[in-house]
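Researcher: Sequence of AtpZ/AtpI family protein follows. Predict its structure.
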Amino acid sequence: MLSGIIVWGGAGVLLDRWLETRVFALVGLLLGLGVAIYLVVVKYGAVDPPAGNRPTSTTRGGQRSRPPEYRKTQKGRR
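Model: Prediction complete. Tokens:
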């Protein structure tokens, strides 16, 4: 998360120096923070919903259920 803030904040500081303004550093910091939080949520997943709204699942461990003929593998079959 820190690297996103540093990179986008640094880009904002450079843009501020080039355009002689003072707003792009703050915009860069906020953009870097937002993108960093988004990437963490995408990588590790969002928070689970409350137990009352959770759908029930018949499979264990997040595995997909398959017909019985696909559970057994044969030599040469992929």
